[in-house]
Structure formats: C-alpha cells, structure tokens
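ok posting inputs for the S-adenosylmethionine job
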Amino acid sequence: MTTNRAHHEVRALILAAEGDAGQVVRQVGAPRTAALLVDELIGRADLDEVPGLDRTPITVAFDLAFDGGTVSHHVVAGKSAEHRPGAPAAAHATIEVDLLELLRATYGAWRAPSCQNLRIRWNDIEDIAALSSSMHVFHVVQRLVRGTTERHADLSELSLRNGSDKWGLHYYTPHYERHFGPLRDRPLTIVELGIGGYGDPAAGGASLRMWKRYFPRAVIHGVDIFDKAALREPRIDTIQGDLSDPAFLASLGERIGPIDIVIDDGSHYCPDVIAAFRAMFGLVRPGGLYVVEDLQTSYWRGYGGSSERRDDPATSMGYLKKLLDGLTHEDHEAGGAEPDDVARTLTGAHFYRSLAVFDKGVNQEGPSPSWIPRTRMTYEEMTDVEWGGDGLKADSQE
Ligand SMILES: C[S@@+](CC[C@H](N)C(=O)[O-])C[C@H]1O[C@@H](n2cnc3c(N)ncnc32)[C@H](O)[C@@H]1O
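and the output
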C-alpha cells in the first residue's frame, strides 16, 4: 500500500489550527504549510467560474509572515489553477497575512475569526490601462480570500457541481444535511467505500470532493477496488482494496484509525454490504454515523438480494432491519438473544428511500424500571392510578 503523507500533515494542522500551532507548523514546515493552505483555498474558490482566465491567466502571490520572516507561495489561475512555492516573477496581486492567522481562518472551527490582518496589494491598481486586461484579478482574489470565511455551501449544489449522483439520480443530500449538518465544523475522519469511475484510474472521486468541500476540516478516505491514487489531494486519501476480502476489511482499522462517518457506496452487493458493516461499525467513534446507500439492490437477485425473502438476514435490508431489535436489547424478556457489540453501541437507525443511517454510541440506558407493568394494565387498573405531578404514586405502582 502506498501512503499519502499529505493527509497526515493536514490533519495535524487542522487539529492545531485553533491553538498554539507554531510548533506543528515548524514540524510540517512553513513552506509546506503554505502550500497546503493555498491548495485548500484554491479548492474552495471555484475558479473555473471566473470568465477570462483561459485568455489572460492571473497570478496571485501569498506573502505569509512566520517566525520573523516571510514564506512566499503563488497561484497561477489559468484554464486550471496551479500553485507553486516562492514568489512569482510578476503578480497581479499579493495577499499578505500571518501564516498562523491564515491557518486558523482556513482550518479552525467556524467561529474562529476570519483574517483580521489580511491585506491585499493590487499591483496595477493605479494603471487603468494595465488593469483593463486583467480586471478579473478581483474575482480571483476575492474567491481565494472567501475560502477563509465561506462555510455554508449547500450539499445538493455541491453534489451537482462535483458531478455526484447523490442528488438528481438519488435524492440523498437532504437526508445527509439532516444528519451531517451538526458535524460540519468538526475535524472529522470520513471513509467512503466506493470512489467511482470504476477501472479508469483518473475518473471518479466526485463525492470525495463534495465531502471535502462540505466538511472543511475533515480528512476523507476513499476505498475502491481500483487504484485511485491519481485522485489524491491533501485532504483526500485513496485506498485500494476489495470489499469482498475479509483480510482487507480487517486491515482498514489499522490503516485509518477511529472513524467519524462511514458511507458505503461500494459494490452494493449484499454480502459485501453486510461484511463491511460488520467489520467497520466497530471502528466508528461514539457520536459517529454509518451510512449505507443504494439499498434498492437488497431486492435484486443479481446483487444477492431478493424481493420475496425481504427479512432474510443474508440480504442487506434483512440484515439491517434485524439491527433494530438490538436498539431495545436491554428490555428483552428472558429468552431474548444476547446483545452483540453492534447492539451495545447502536443508538439510532434512520431509513429513507434506498438509504439508511445508523448512530453509533453507547446503548446502555438500563432496562425500563421494574415497577413499570410488564403486562398491559386493565381499564380498571388504569382508572385506579393516582397520578401526581411527579408521576405514578407509590401505592398505585404494584
Ligand atoms: C457507485 S461508484 C461510487 C461513486 C462515488 N461514491 C460517488 O458518489 O461519486 C461504486 C465504486 O465502487 C467500486 N467497487 C465495486 N466493487 C467493489 C469492491 N468489491 N471493492 C471495492 N470497491 C468496489 C467501483 O470500482 C466503483 O468505483
């Protein structure tokens, strides 16, 4: 397995962003930190929407103050946007800001202040003749700077913009907003099974890029049976492996560590869906989520499913429906099955069209109190109950 060093660096920077990040920046290296931050800002800038860049590329320099010196980096925004270390020969504009301030604004929590001391030097601001051919420099710079403040991209729009089928073919994004919205600001580890693009090494990654934009502080790991290393970015890691291979599934925990969100959009073959859930639900942190997409295949013979045997635990839906009994395992009467690790840590289950979301936590509220009648009360018994402001009175609780 090849490793992607960038996501370790970027994760360290995200975790340090709000505190005293100087030491981490020195470890990662100030020029490397500058490169990672500028790469992130380009990713948030949607520069392909700025007209005129193919005719007149724009160069924007970053002068980033750190440890008494200046780290320079620059962006050349043309047909595509590239960034390079060092100062450019000539720049249309220069963004001057403290490196740690830029780090905090880019990778800190949403309430972190934006760059108060950021200044922009427009190089041709007094020369209207020179400026007239490169007016779009304003759009480029505004969009690059916006990456330090913009937080509210809508997931359906991001899905469309990135070419994912999570809205339009499927209608998953509103459900995702409901479950993922409260977590957006966190430094998350996200795993999506199934990167897309199948055998084409350069194709796919639409949803990985969507998640990267939606979760500005997350590192996203994509898993696919094909090698997708070409799609790696500082906050996007790719791992090659077959979800049908138990040894590969077992190795993911060691490779990735604890996970906040798993999204299974892989083969959709029922045995793979079940094996992945069994292997990976345990890796999800308390408070995290496990999502399974495209559950329609649970009803299709060609995916190991069945439209007749709908409760068969060998089908994805049959297996997942069975988990619901685990939610109330503490209230099962004698003879109920022993709870397994999933039952002990499953705290919620939400089903939508072809999509299911499972909450990970600690499912140990304790059984219902013994004084709650285990047999339905008769009308007379209910009539005799004395109901005080604080619940059933002791003498009516037998
Ligand atoms: C539906 S696509 C994923 C789309 C992507 N998540 C998105 O929303 O943009 C499914 C991917 O799963 C991969 N896949 C299929 N079978 C697999 C297996 N057994 N193990 C790992 N990946 C597999 C395919 O190569 C394909 O790229």
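notes: Residues 155-360 form a domain with the Rossmann fold fold (CATH 3.40.50.150). The chain has two domains: 5-146, 155-360.
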